[in-house]
Amino acid sequence: MVGLPTQRLDTLLAFSGIWSTRLTYNYWRKGGYTIGSEDYRWEVLRKYINAPLFFVFNVLFISLAQSLLLFSITMPTYVLLLASKITGNDHTTADLIFSRALVGVVLLAFFADGQQWNYQNAKKEYLKTAKVPPKFQQEDLDRGFCVSGLWSWSRHPNFAAEQSVWVILYQWSCYVTNTYFNWTIVGPIAYLILFQASTWFTELITAKKYPEYAEYQQRVGKFLPKMGTDLPGDFSDKRIEKSSDGEAMN
C-alpha cells in the first residue's frame, strides 16, 4: 500500500464503518447477539429437511458460502485501488456522487429498519395490553405486518437498500475504469440472486402467517415501487371505505 493513492479507499473505509454500524445496531436491538439466537427462517427450514442435511447446509452455505459471498461483493474496492494508481489521488465529482449515494442508501435502510422496529414494538404492546399505541391504527396492528412509510412503497425497502450498496460500489469501479462491466460483477450478481431466493423464502413464511399479505404483494413491489398501480400500499383506501360504510349505515 506504500505509495499507492488511497483517498477512494479511505472513503470506502469510512463508509464501511457506517454500513457496519447500521447492521450491528439493528441486529443487536433485535436480540441477535444473545446466546442461542439465530435467523428465524432456519427454524422453519428444519421442518422441511432432516438434521444431517441441515448440518451440511449450515457448513456449506451459512458458514462458508456466505463468507465467500461477502468477500466477493467487496472486490470492486480492489479495482478502485488499482484505478487510483493510474488516475492519481484526486477525488472527483463522480467519486463524491458515488460515495454520497452509498451513504444515502444506508440511511434509507436505517429508516426502514426503524419503521419496522417501531411497528413490531407497537404490535407487541397491543397484543399484550389490548391498547392501541399512539400514532398507530388498530387495523394495521391486527393485520400483523408493516405497510406504512417506506413499507408502503416497497415490501422490503431495507433489502432494496442493502442490494443497492453493492450495485453502486460495482458501478463506481466501472466508472473509474471507463468500462461498462468488469470481472467483479460476479459478486453483485451472486448477491442479488441470494436476495431473490432468501426473500422468496421469507415471503413464503409471511404469507402463510398473515392472510392479507397476498394483497400486499399485489399492491406493492418486492424491492422497487410499482408505478402501474394506484392502490395505496398502506391500505388507507380500505379505511376510507370502512369509514364511508359506517357513515352510510348511520
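Above is the first protein from milestone M3; the second protein from the same milestone is given next.
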Amino acid sequence: MSSSASNGNGKKADGKKADTPQWVSLAAGSTAGAVEAAATYPFEFAKTRVQLSGGKLPRNPFQVVGDVYKQEGFRALYKGCSTLVVGSIFKDGIRFLSFDSIRNAFKDRESDTLTPARSLLAGMAAGVVASFTAVTPTERLKTALIDDAARTSMGQPATFRSPYDAVITLIRRDGFVQGLYRGWEGTTLKQAGATAARLGSYNIIKDAEKGFGIQQSTPITFLNGAAAGTITVYTTQPFDTLKTRGQSAKGASVVDAFQSIIKTSGVRGFWRGSVMRLSRVVWSGGM
C-alpha cells in the first residue's frame, strides 16, 4: 500500500491529514458564495446605484434601499441579482480550486505548510484568475442592469429586457471583449488588492494580539475579520468605483470613468459607496 493512501479517518497512512477533495472545495465555495450574494444583495444594489449617481444619492444604505423600495418596488432591489449569484458561484468555486492548486504547488513538502508570503501570493493569483473567468463579465452585467433600471425609473426606455438580453445586446453593440469585459482593469485590481489587504491586515492584527497575550475566540475572530474587512474596503474602494463607472449601461473607458468621477465628485468620489460595501462585508462576515 502506498504511504500516502488514506486510512479511512481523513488522514494519510503517514499520519498527515488527507487533502480535501477538489469537488468538496468547489461545492462548499459555490454554495457559500451564492447564499452570501443573495442575502446581501440590497447593499450591493445600493452601493452600485450611489456610485453611478455621481453624488446625487444619500450615503446611508438603508435610506437608499428604502427610497428604491417606495418608488420602484421590492423587485427593483434585486435587479441584476441573478447575474451576481451566478458569478459568485463560479467565482468562489474557481477561487477554491485555484487557491488549493497554487497552495499545494508552493507549500513545503516536508512541513506541509505555506509561508505567509506565499499564501498571500496564492490568494492574489486566485483572485486574478477569478476576475478573468467569472467576476468581470458578471459584474459588467449586474452593473449595466442596475444602471438601466435607474434610467427606466426616470422615464427613459429600457435597454435590456432580461440578463440574457443584456448579454446579447452588449455583445452586438460593443463586441465580446468590450461588451462583457469592460472594466476588467478595476475589477482585477480590486480582486487582487482585496486579497492582499485582507490577508495582510488580518495576519498583522492576529500577531499584535498574540503580542498582547489576547486569546483567540469566536468573538475575537469575528472582530478581527470585521477590522480586516474595513481596511480592505477603504483601501480598494477606488478600484471598485472606477470599475462600476466603466461598467454602466452605456459603458466607458478607464480614462473616461476616471475623469467622470473627478468632474462630478472630486477625489472623494472614488470612495463613494464605501458605507454600502462595508455593510455588506460585515453582514456577510456575520453569516
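Note on the second protein: The radius of gyration is 21 Å.
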